[in-house]
């Protein structure tokens, strides 16, 4: 059983992204009422978090593209149509 890296399913990624939205919304409200935005440490940490999350988003998007490239959806649809269609040359 693998513990790391976790299985990054779309459901898990949606929960992570939703949590990040809530966290950054709270941080934005708090920074408006404090002097956090004046702090170099705060800006540096926020930039690092933004870099990590954007890299994670790009990585997840590339995973989706790889999965789409590995599956030939059009061929699967055509095969399903051919299997379900009966052609009789004597009719019509």
How is the secondary structure organized here?
Layout: H1 10-33, H2 40-70, H3 73-84
Description:
The chain is built from 3 helices and no strands. The mean pLDDT is 78. The protein is mainly α. It is rod-shaped and about 85 Å long. Helix content is 73%, strand content 0%. It has helices spanning 10-33, 40-70, 73-84.
Keywords:
92 residues; mainly alpha; 3 helices
What is this entry, summarized?
With 92 residues, this protein is mainly alpha-helical.
Distance between the amino and carboxyl termini: 59 Å
Mean of all residue-level pLDDT scores = 78
Give the oligomeric state: single chain
User: Measured on Cα atoms, how large is the radius of gyration?
Assistant: 24 Å
What is the percentage of strand-forming residues?
Answer: under 5%
Overall number of strands: 0
Shape: rod-shaped
Structural class: mainly alpha
Order of helices and strands: HHH
Report the sheet with the most strands, covering strand number, pairing sense and barrel closure: none
Helix content: over 70%
| Spans where pLDDT lies below 50 across 5 or more residues | none
Number of helices: 3
């Amino acid at each position: 059983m693998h513990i790391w890296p976790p299985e990054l399913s779309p459901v898990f990624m949606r929960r992570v992204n939703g949590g990040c939205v809530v966290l950054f919304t709270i941080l934005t409200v708090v920074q408006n009422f404090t002097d956090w935005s004046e702090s170099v440490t705060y800006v540096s940490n926020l930039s690092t978090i933004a870099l990590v999350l954007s890299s994670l988003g790009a990585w997840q998007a590339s995973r989706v593209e790889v999965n789409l490239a590995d599956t030939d959806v059009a061929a699967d649809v055509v095969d399903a149509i051919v299997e379900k269609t009966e052609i009789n040359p004597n009719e019509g």
